[in-house]
Write a structure and sequence with these properties.
The protein is α/β, with parallel strands linked by helices. It is 51% helix and 10% strand. The strands form three sheets. It has a five-stranded parallel β-sheet with strand order 2-3-4-1-5, covered by helices on one side.
Length: 532
Amino acid sequence: MYQVLYRKWRPQTFSEVYGQPAVTTALTNELRTGRLAHAYLFTGSRGTGKTSCAKILAKAVNCLNLHDGDPCNECDNCRGIDAGTILDVVEIDAASNNGVDNIRDLRDEVNFTPSVAKYRVYIIDEVHMLSAGAFNALLKTLEEPPEHVIFILATTEVHKLPATILSRCQRFDFGRIPAEEISARLQYVAQQEQFTLADDAALLIARLADGGLRDALSLLDQCLSRSHNITAALVAEATGMAGREHLFRLAAAVRNHDGAAALTQLNTLYEGSKDMERLCVELIDFYRNIMILKSVGDPGSLIVISPDELTELRNEAKALPLESILHIMDVLQRTLDRLKSGVSRRVEMETTLLRLCDPRLDTTPESLLRRIEALESRPAVSAPIPAAASAVVEEEAPAAEEPPAMESAEPETPTAPAKPAGGEPAPFADWTDVLANIAKESPPLYGVLSDSSALIDGEQLIVITDNDMFIPLVKKDGNKAVLLNAVQAVVGKPMRIKRGRPAQAAAAESADPLTAFLKRSAESGISIDEKG
């Protein structure tokens, strides 16, 4: 009968345990010196060797021919424990035997001496699944067991164990196995099993295993069922991944703000039966690698990818600011949470990609920061000039005998470049938007300009109004700044502002010298009695 790879290649001695040198060294030293503890706690993520080390330790304490801390695997005790015929080694699944009654039965059994072996060994897997009552029932026995009993507890969630249990055990933490070591182990298994495994395929499997060698061997077995020549493309197909090319295309669409391209690429993946939740996880990992490259000059072991992919990711990192990368990862993480409870995963991913392609569709603070960053990164149209120095409100050139109606309080600066020869002022279509901004800040100024219009002439804006209160009102109560800011908010740059008059009003005023004289007198504060 075929035996799956992770069972066939399960280590039988501490020297065969892969990726846990600190744990295996400590255990072999205890076995060599005979300083054995009565209770051990093995903790760590899945597939890192906890149960394997527990079984090796159970054989080693009962081995008749111990070799430098390793069981011989040849004596009757070692063979009996491997075959399951020696009942002195008991493996308990706490997930299904987590009640008080189960622990009470165990507490009664420990009083019996071993029938064949030297020690009765109890391996309690997933011990965090025990109920509160079961933990309390185990406390006294775990603290002072009979001399012939050894407890080995294993768990992936050590934070769920009571402190009273932790204090009674000798704890060993199993770390995640580095991807490079998993890849090397997979290549060794491939050589022994006589099939071909590409280097990038081994790295991809190691990344997907997330530090667990058992998961890596299971994925390798899954790929082996399809072909004896395993490539990265085959791994992606077997595991339902989107693949590197699709991820880079989606990233390019997001970078170029091309929502249509992103949705087209997503539709291709959906028709290929790619899981949307898995795609979201891949995108998070993809941008996480870009974040590392953007933040760390030499990523080293922080990311494990092929040289070709590293070059492409570096190019992608150069094109994206760190703020945008963090925003994208945050949006994808929120999407991943919604995918687990949403009705349509495809629609959820489509809306997410559209938000990433067009930050205006996202109203979160992170999106607003991304939009501000995009504005700041745009090249300047012209050299920056302080608004107070470049935008000056002035009236149209007065007649020779008439003094200027308004002078700027700031020092005068060179005037804006003259318009090209033959150019004529053009109507300013956005003047209503300027008036709307003025209405919010200065209702009196808006009332004066409500019937006005405007012309744009190169770098200056000509306000067309025959209301004589315009110039006096602009000179006081900060109305000048209100007008300048309102114009700049709409135009996008500082402008010089002049006043113009309707042609008929200007003609009528120039034809009546008395009207012009009265106007100048009113502006200077002199009261004139027309009858006198």
